[in-house]
Amino acid sequence: MRKYTTLIVLGVIVAMFGLGWLIYMFFAYVGLEPRRETALGIVTSEHSFDTAAIQQAIADDQSDIFHLEWNDDGKKPTPLPTEAPPDPNTRLPDWTESDFMRIVMAFAKLTGKDIADANLFQIIFNTDCQHANAGMQDMTFGFFRDISERGSRYRTYLRQFITIAPQSNRLRWQEIKLSEVVREHESLDRHTTHLSAEDALQIAENLGGSSFRSEKNNECLIFGVITEGNSNDEWLVEYKKNKVPFTPLLTVFIDPQTGQGRVVTP
So where are the chain's domains? Predict the structure, then answer.
């Protein structure tokens, strides 16, 4: 009797295992199995340029503008060059987002990088509070390209980021290949009327940022970002402590269509 009981128990276990496997295979077939985006490769390079002369050089259609300082070749250099402090002899220019973007497109043209501005999905800016009136100290633009295979259930994208730091006279290029992406990427400008970074910063300043800086004696940092699909495609501008942890002390959300903002404090 015990022998038959043992066999029955084993049979039930095997049947449950088999049923579980069949259920998993079913969901895998219809595309509902859990997936996580996977970074298949990251390529990074850094280039120097002359901040004082670059805008005129681009206008003159010069070709000798960007100079390769290093590329990782799959390895991270030590120490990272961007960890060096900004050049104190380089004056912070009062560039607009369009000025930064002009550098991005010139770099793409001169280096053969495949970037389509229609596929812009993210813009980031940073500045310390004492330079808020001059605008952005550095900006990052994120682009994407869909390189999925025809008929593939999941998407494969190249995300390409260009960071421009005028005071360091540096530009950083980074390309990340992402596979098994469930959510389809879309362009920032596809669903919104774009509000420039300098306008977003000025709106945040008018909604309490300027007063906040005065209270903190400009001992703070400003971070701004707009990303397609996040926070209803709103601009997020944060005023943070300039020491670790960089806790947001004042946050402003801005509608890029209307320019209306709302303030959030801890």
Answer: 1-34, 38-264
